[in-house]
Sequence to fold (204 residues):
Amino acid sequence: MSDNPYAPSGSSYGDASLDANVDLSQAELIRKSHLNHEANIQSFGCLYTLGGVLGILGGIFYIGLGIFILAGGSPAGAGAGADQEPLVAGITTTVVGIVFVAIASAQLFAGRSMQTLNPSGKILAVVVSAIGLLGFPCGTIISGYLLYLLLSAKGEMVFSSAYKEVMQATPHIRYRTSIIVWIFLFLLIGVILLGVVGAIIGAR
Fold:
């Protein structure tokens, strides 16, 4: 039986072939061949975590608004919403808020799992990403790429316990994010914040 703690004997991942006798140099080779994949998954994890936090805050806002309506406040202030029965409007708004919180909580857990490469949350990350395919066209493209990252051979390796050992053996190897990636992340964060602000203004 192989003493290799990183993978079954004879297997290979990316550009690194795993031999029976693994040393630090080979751990470095494995890490470097998966580093870009690892960093991409963790970057998506940051975005999903941020989206989850904002979604939970938005859901709490709707729940509070629903309770306010049930307590006798004006449902949506004016317009078509003002013609609704307060009970119906309050319950509907509260339910919408609860659904938001539930979905955002799942997204938050999926994001944290991707950030920490926790295999217990990988299935949930796949499910959330699959739902994101419905957001045509940007959501479809982004979620499709994330599904590739999660379900590819390198994705399987990155989420494995063997890769955890590789990471522990190579703490000196770090991914340097380019300025283009940072710009892309800030643009996405801006879009998310605008969406949240728009939803709150629309609710008022």
